[in-house]
Amino acid sequence: MEPIRSFESRTVVLPFTNIDTDQIIPARFLTTTTKEGLGQRAFADWRYEASGAPKPDFILNKPEARGCSILVAGRNFGCGSSREHAPWALLDFGFKAVISTEIADIFRNNSLKNGLLPIVVDEQSHQWLLQNPGASVRIDLEAGTVQLPTGASIKFTVERFARYCLLNGIDELGFLLQKDAAITSYEQAHA
């Protein structure tokens, strides 16, 4: 995982409420245990015709979505079944953060464990983001802020351990591996 400290990006807006994990990554693509290539399948049923041709009017297929690493979504993003493939697909597409007024708990936890930053903001800030697609936004995980181009600064929180892992670009296993010498020392002393 890449460490997340602060970054700036234009936003992509999907204003729909209740975007579930099957819409993020349809179940037929869950046969893989690797993350690579899942970005091509993100929102597949919305992005592609039955023939496989991209739908030119879907936002992720438009040129203005290229290079954007912040997804602004409607309320209750990531609801539905638990699947790590959903944050994997968003990360592989190029997103680093998802902003909404409500993010489903299981999706949020899966995101944090896989390096995708889920950010919950207040309704007024969310409405501004929804109404200004493509806005250049700065996210600072160290400060816990989202900076809007208006100068407004929105505070957000991330659970302490997850924040530590994101800032250091490690997952839970990586955290444990950092403690290998101490674990080995303890085991030898208590053999």
H/E series: EHHEHEHEHEEEHHH
Span of the ends, CA to CA: 34 Å
Give the % helix.
25-40%
Question: What's the average pLDDT?
Answer: 94
- Classified by CATH, the class is Alpha Beta
Count of strand segments: 7
The largest sheet is:
7 strands, mixed
- State the strand order across the main sheet: 4-3-2-1-5-6-7
Describe the structure.
By secondary structure, the protein is of the alpha/beta class. The chain has one domain (6-189): Aconitase, domain 4 (Alpha-Beta Barrel), CATH 3.20.19.10. Helices cover 32% and strands 17% of the residues. It is built from eight helices and seven strands; from the N terminus they run βααβαβαβαβββααα. It has a seven-stranded mixed beta sheet with strand order 4-3-2-1-5-6-7. Strand 6 (145-147) and strand 7 form a beta hairpin. The mean pLDDT is 94.
Topology (SSEs and partners):
Layout: E1 6-14, H1 21-24, H2 44-47, E2 70-73, H3 85-93, E3 97-100, H4 105-114, E4 117-120, H5 123-131, E5 136-140, E6 145-147, E7 153-155, H6 160-168, H7 172-178, H8 180-189
Parallel strand pairs: 1-2, 2-3, 3-4
Antiparallel strand pairs: 1-5, 5-6, 6-7
Annotation keywords:
191 residues; alpha/beta; seven-stranded mixed sheet; 8 helices; globular
In short:
This protein is of the alpha/beta class. It is built from 8 helices and 7 strands, in the order βααβαβαβαβββααα.
